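Posting here for the record, re: NAP.
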Amino acid sequence: MERREVESFFERASSVRALVIGDLMLDEYLWGKTDRISPEAPVQVVEVNREDLRLGGAGNVVNNLVALGCKVSVCSVVGDDDNANLLRGAFEEKGVDLEGLFHDPERKTSKKTRVIAANQQIVRIDRETRAHICDDCQQKVLGYLYARLGDFDVVVVSDYLKGVLTPAVLEALCQAGRTLGIPVVVDPKGNDYGKYRGATLLTPNRKEAEIASGIAIADVAALQQAADKLLSELALDALLITRSEAGMSLFPSAGAAVHIPTVAREVYDVTGAGDTVIAVLSLGLACGLSMADAAWVANVAAGIAVGKLGTSTVSPQEIVVEVGHGLKDSDSKIKNLDVLTHIIAQERARGKKVVFTNGCFDLLHVGHVKYLQKARELGDLLVVGLNTDASVKRLKGETRPLIEESERAHILAALDCIDYVVLFDEDTPLTLIEALVPTVLAKGADYKIEDVVGREVVEAGGGRAPPAASSTRSSTPTEVVAPKPLPAGPISASYPSIPGGTMKKAFITGITGQDGSYLAELLLDKGYQVHGMIRRSSSFNTGRINHIYRDPHEAETRLLLHYGDLNDASSINRLLREVRPDEIYNLGAQSHVRVSYDVPEYTGEVDALGAVRILEGIRETGLNTRFYQASSSELYGKVLETPQRETTPFYPRSPYACAKAYAFYITKNYRESYGMFACNGILFNHESPRRGETFVTRKITRAAARIRLGLQERLYLGNLEAKRDWGFAGDYVEGMWRMLQCDQPDDFVIATGETHSVREFAELVFSRHDLELAWQGAGVDEKGVERRSGKVLIEIDPRYFRPAEVDLLLGDSGKARRELGWRPETSFRELVAMMADADLKIAQKELRANG
Ligand code: NAP
Ligand code: G4F
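Prediction output follows.
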């Protein structure tokens, strides 16, 4: 579907009348913390500090339809209690018609209370009646349906097996729907689908379809078989099977199946996505879309829903925006301000730098194009505000413009460097700038900075004062203003100058490691002279930095390596005296948690005492050096709070974490005792194609690629349930550097705010190689089996279990985001893809080398 079609589809939504019939519920969430066991019984005591009440069950479908803009009526039976009043109140607030909502004093209104502490659901308390509604209520429901069904454009059936949808109600509904030509769309439950016979469309998920059809769905052929069986047995018009990350498949009773791949970019929360699917799908059918088109839009909506935490609805604007992303043709680049405001808000939330410029662009010439290309280089996307014909006339006189606005917009949109074009009718683009709040304003060099319209808006949004224009050419704009590379606040304006020159000197321990190599690249890029400490080894260990290393005899070499060891204070002191660095990054460590159990004393020597050796060295040599200590999320260990932040207490769980805890506190102690500029970066797991091959992510990406090419049979793993907040190492070294540029030293968490299990990581990586995993067995006997071939690809080896495990890490990097302007740029899925693809290339090389 074209974006315009999707837009016009939603324009029709406000005239759609939808009936939702089914089991209504209240979902109550009690959030709290737990740090003690009750003296009364061996159970946790939860101190509740937040409560939340939401519409659940069929109520969430109502939520979704309301968010999409339709008029919604509800038909259901609830109790005659306080919870029923709460439900009524919530619906009335949304303008939902409740004529079909009946009360039975003998029933309890369904309420599910979930108690959640430390990100874990501890208990769920259900208060509900699960019996069929009484005869009297059934008559009321049937009476309502017979009287009102003809008023609706679509009926959505949301069944949770709580008793509203009796066989008699369903039969009457499906029959009347057919007679009146009203689509009846069912989200089914249970094993017996016979009661849905005659409905228009059913939307089971893969597992539900498997159970209902009695056919194991291991591949697309089995999926088709199951669909055929259900379609013919239930006399449906179509069946839509949702398949999680594999997308969804639509099986019309006549015609070929349509398989729609998922469009989810990042999956945070799948709860409620099914309700979004059925709501969008039903709206589509009510508006006269074909089943395939309605399913396509529902799939886009599902992709958005799973990318959100805690909210279960999706707005038409979000869907239009998402469709626009997929169709970046020149036409789709031209937006109205409402839609663009939404897009830009999302892009900014993703950390993208948005550049804005404006003009009449009548008779586009090469000067314009060069200027626009330069402007685009200042950020991640460029928005052009284009004066309408009327505003050009006012500004330039009656004879202008020579080219009318829609043509000018299309010419601009055809340029690669432009991402969006938006027309404005006012004399200045201030309204646009206020709505979009771009990160960078670009203007021609002939403008005086103080005259740039919207400058204050950008600065208030965090931008910096623009530099003075250096060019005076007026017809060819070349100068740009108001870049926002770093937040103005914490970045030191008075960075100490380096005696004898302006080039800053950094000293990195652990430069041959993953982080060391990315940090060295970053600092060289920033113009630093970089000194790295390396250990003498019988074989080369500089593989990760070979690409940036130059012969020191060459002129202008800025990367210099020195032998030394964190276990050898004399080497550290000598190097500090010789190099006299402005910044030290202490990344050197025995960094493997599992290995730290094998070499606990050595780990303490390097990871704990190594840090104090450097701090003492700085103190003794009297250098004014800034110090970064590579602290770790492992310090949180058996977590006492989720998400973990700077104030969360530590609970280290391994010799590695204990050693890092010492290094953390000694860094803080030298800061407080001697006023040293010393910072701890509490970094959560970060990975990359350069990650050591025995850390779990790299172990998986490497093995999956080798298995794909037949170089390896199987992968042995430990605890599949462990969850980590995995980011990209290339993003994280920027955070280290930013910490040392602050006015005051401090400690910062660096994390993505997303957590995933080892199992999930493995599934994604193998699926990237077209190897879909199914899990069989449990505990140490669990196996990851390839669905198609039935081959065992993953087994558990208890050797990789840890004596004490860190189960869940999830970081809150709010402080770093606010005070350092740092944020992760790479999503979890991008990281997985990057690592999987890099290891595939290595495996292909290996295969070629093996002949
Ligand atoms: P890595 O790849 O294992 O690199 C460790 C580096 O330390 C290597 O260059 C290693 O040199 C060096 N090293 C080991 N023992 C040394 C010694 N006795 N003297 C001097 N150098 C020594 O680790 P990484 O992933 O880059 O992590 C960098 C730092 O961040 C480590 O301190 C780690 O504990 C910490 N950290 C990492 C993460 C993460 O997820 N990656 C998260 C939080 C904290 P060789 O090449 O000679 O072995
Ligand atoms: O990849 P891992 O070895 O990393 P871990 O233990 O989280 O430590 C890494 O991150 C820390 C930051 O939190 C750093 F401080 C530290 O230096 C290092 O970079 O293991 C991740 C999880 C663990 O729970 C582990 O039990 O994966 C589980 N796992 C399951 N099977 C495995 C395996 N880990 C490894 N290494 N190998 C396995 O076969």
